């Protein structure tokens, strides 16, 4: 951890030290969509003292366990399989559950807090976009990556460079990130009001888990998978 500097990007820090994601989450420092920012820039954006946060990272790293999966060591095929099996599978199960919960809570309690209607609308839109996003990755982008890895020369892609669909996926990640920020703001950091029923409380807890999984999901793609694919294509081109 002594090698980490304030000019390192937050995405690379979490890539190399996955357990530190918890501290980034707690401090609300964006390491997925904002993973290209340096640690210093990200801290300043959040109103944190960079040196203080760096010291906290070093302290947390002392007890850092070995990651369950070494993402950096995985091949493109292994990475895409991991993302599908862990994060895509989670979303396919959790999105319909969250849609039902959020629709019910907005219907029952929307008169007490009109923000619940906004939460419902934002989430339903996000859910639809994510469903399409997963399909595009599984049916188009990820097969392209596997093909790129297994062929000796660069395949002829219908979209030209593999960077083109990656750029589109990155833009869609940014849109999802904006929606997550809105959901957190509208729910007071997923804090239930005193009058909240059990279903409402379950919803907020599920939304928090959903946000954390999305952060990990986008981080793995933006900061590990996508750069690896672009680098491999450039290597084969050279």
Topology (elements, then pairings):
Blueprint lengths: L9 H7 L4 H6 L12 H8 L3 H13 L13 H34 L5 H36 L12 H24 L11 H40 L1
Helix pairs in contact: 1-8, 3-4, 5-6, 5-8, 6-7, 7-8
Please describe what this structure looks like.
The chain folds into two domains: 10-62, no CATH class; 71-237, no CATH class. With 238 residues, it is an all-alpha fold. Helices cover 71% and strands 0% of the residues. The model has no long low-confidence stretch (mean pLDDT 91). The two termini are 34 Å apart.
Give a brief rundown of this model.
The protein is built from eight helices and no strands. The protein has 238 residues and is an all-alpha fold.
Indicate the overall shape.
globular
- Reading the helices and strands in chain order gives HHHHHHHH
Secondary-structure-based class equals mainly alpha
Unreliable spans are none
Could you give a short account of the major beta sheet?
none
Tally of helical segments: 8
Oligomer: single chain
What's the gyration radius in Å? 19 Å
Count of distinct structural domains: 2
DSSP E strands, number? 0
Q: Average pLDDT value?
A: 91
**What distance separates the N and C termini?**
34 Å
- Helix content range: over 70%
| Beta-strand proportion | under 5%
């Amino acid at each position: 951890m002594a090698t980490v500097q304030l000019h390192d990007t937050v995405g690379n820090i979490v890539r190399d030290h996955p357990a530190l994601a918890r501290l980034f989450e707690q401090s609300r420092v964006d390491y997925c969509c904002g993973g290209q920012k340096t640690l210093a820039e990200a801290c300043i954006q959040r109103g944190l003292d960079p040196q203080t946060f760096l010291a906290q990272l070093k302290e947390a790293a002392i007890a850092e366990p070995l990651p369950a999966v070494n993402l950096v060591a995985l091949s493109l095929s292994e990475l895409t399989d991991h993302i599908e099996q862990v994060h895509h599978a989670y979303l396919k199960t959790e999105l319909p559950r969250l849609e039902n919960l959020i629709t019910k809570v907005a219907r029952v309690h929307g008169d007490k807090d009109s923000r619940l209607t906004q939460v419902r609308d934002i989430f339903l839109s996000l859910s639809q976009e994510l469903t399409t996003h997963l399909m595009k990755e599984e049916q188009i982008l990820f097969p392209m990556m596997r093909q790129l890895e297994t062929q000796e020369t660069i395949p002829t892609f219908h979209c030209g460079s593999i960077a083109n669909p990656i750029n589109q996926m990155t833009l869609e990640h940014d849109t999802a990130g904006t929606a997550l920020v809105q959901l957190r703001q509208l729910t007071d950091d997923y804090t239930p009001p005193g009058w909240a029923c059990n279903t409402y409380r379950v919803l907020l807890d599920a939304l928090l888990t959903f946000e954390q999984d999305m952060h990990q999901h986008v981080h793995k793609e933006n900061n590990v998978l996508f750069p690896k694919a672009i680098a491999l294509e450039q290597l084969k081109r050279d």
